[in-house]
């Protein structure tokens, strides 16, 4: 047998298990060895019966005096009871639904039992312990144990494949194969970083000799996976940097004219960032830049400056927003910002396509989709704004010079790389914008293909938003506050939580988000009928037709409504300066970054504003987490806390990326990420094709196959 041998060749693995293993992604012996435990139980400290305490988890070695199945009166329920003894005392052990045990454990046998000590009518007993028979002559060295008497691995649970079975299969394989696994990492890297060699690491990760060695083994594999991720991401970055595009010289006068026409003065930070972007696009290689800046820091005008320069060099711009409401808002904003620039702006939506022509200036007209697409292909549309519909095959540009992505967290490395190829004639630049700060570790990994810029200054000075955690009993006070604010001429948001899919009953999937709609509807009814009958209240959710959504937003903007009850999805990025109150229901369901974003929407006119968080007090950690929000106003800090608490999923959507858990869990370790990035950079300069590192090259190839950072 070899590492590449299929698991079916292992004598103890039959057809049923082959199928189950396949489902776990395990086909070969190598796959099995790289199927890692997600935790351990420490049974290394053998106790004596007399020392055991109720409720502790412990392990003992004892002799079996008696073992038998007991009659029970419940169907499908069996009870096996054993009496065991060592030189310090006697006790019982009980197993449920394992009647076959009486065949393998016999009176007179020596066994190790590990598990929880419970108390029953007949005194203390082992409840459903893990067991292991000790053979005569076994020297009791730790390595002879598989399920007890040592630190044992517990594997991610898959129906029908127990940790016990995996231990039973993997242990002998390790003996035979651990020494045959080739080292993937260059020797000097292993040494410099004080990593366990792969042969040791693979044994220690399954059957660690100490808890510390388990950690070291995990660290080694986390290092390896992140190192591969860096090789992958840096490789992509290099690939993109080698693409050639046509330089777009900075049209200084045009830009100056635009800046002068603005109703405000740019902040220094905006100027710096805009200049950097323009300089980037002057070169003959495509820009890939991520522009970060808090909500309200003024990213749109920076994008407009970049866009205008691209247009004036004879190219087109695609501007992509996450929702139709936001595309519409950008269409209006850009129309206003660029009204004197003699350019054509198109808006592509699911229903009514719009168009601002340079002759009509700000006056938008509706045109047919067909015409809009034709004009885009002819190069007559200078900026085309829309949602994901912009990257469909039907949309073709004559000379796409710049793609702007607003709040497109779900775009991964691969998709971004593809965008550079979306232009038919030239390679477009890419400017991605976000108000959610990217934790440093993610900026260096899953966003590692991008250069970063930050707008770190707010145009109108710091907003004054007071964040309060509100217990349910204070609801009345809060409604009073809202009433006062509205009577002062202000407006309020009420955000209702998204109901997570996994919280729904089994079999009742909610891919479409209807439960969220329900929450909004109920809250809307309650507020308009019972709480604020005197005010005008509107409701907004993602399931509404776009035209209706637009109308509701328009009405809210024009103060025709006082309170807007909304889901979380639709309002990201929405600009309503007159709102001073935001109520967030079920705040514990949101990430800190997201909540920080929400509150950035209010108090934009410099008045005191209030972000009021209702939360479920029973939810674990909710208070501590939300309290952090009330005291910390630094978006990056909150994002990094979020990453530690909730993991990286939320920063790139919920999709699986094919990154092993061991790497996912290490994505918050800054020093590790930094080290692997530097190491990858070194290797790529030394040996870009990995010619002298065949095993590493092999690993990278299969890594690429499995990863999908789309
Ligand atoms: P975001 O970075 O959240 O996308 P926007 O670009 O929507 O922010 O800008 C928020 C608001 O601030 C807009 O109304 C915009 O016109 C305004 N704004 C942008 N830059 C400045 C500035 N330098 N001075 C004053 N107001 C500005
Ligand atoms: Mg914005």
Please render the helix and strand layout as text:
Elements: H1 15-23, H2 29-33, E1 39-42, E2 46-47, E3 57-70, E4 79-86, E5 89-96, H3 101-104, E6 110-120, E7 123-134, E8 151-154, H4 163-177, H5 187-192, H6 198-206, H7 211-241, H8 252-261, H9 268-282, E9 288-293, H10 299-312, E10 316-320, H11 324-337, E11 345-348, E12 353-356, E13 365-367, H12 369-378, E14 383-386, E15 400-406, H13 413-419, E16 429-434, H14 440-443, E17 451-455, E18 465-470, H15 475-487, E19 491-495, H16 514-531, E20 537-540, H17 546-557, E21 563-566, H18 568-571, E22 579-584, H19 592-599, E23 609-614, H20 622-631, H21 635-646, H22 661-664, H23 670-686, H24 694-706
Parallel strand pairs: 2-3, 5-7, 9-16, 9-17, 10-14, 10-15, 11-14, 15-16, 18-23, 19-21, 19-22, 20-21, 22-23
Antiparallel strand pairs: 1-8, 3-4, 3-6, 4-5, 6-7, 11-12, 12-13
List keywords for this structure.
binds magnesium ion; OB fold (Dihydrolipoamide Acetyltransferase, E2P); single chain; Rossmann fold; 710 residues; 23 strands; binds adenosine-5'-diphosphate
Q: Can you summarize this structure?
A:
The chain is built from 24 helices and 23 strands. It has 710 residues and is of the alpha/beta class. Among the domains are: 168 residues, Nucleic acid-binding proteins (OB fold (Dihydrolipoamide Acetyltransferase, E2P), Beta Barrel), CATH 2.40.50; 169 residues, 3-Layer(aba) Sandwich (Rossmann fold), CATH 3.40.50; 134 residues, Rossmann fold (3-Layer(aba) Sandwich).
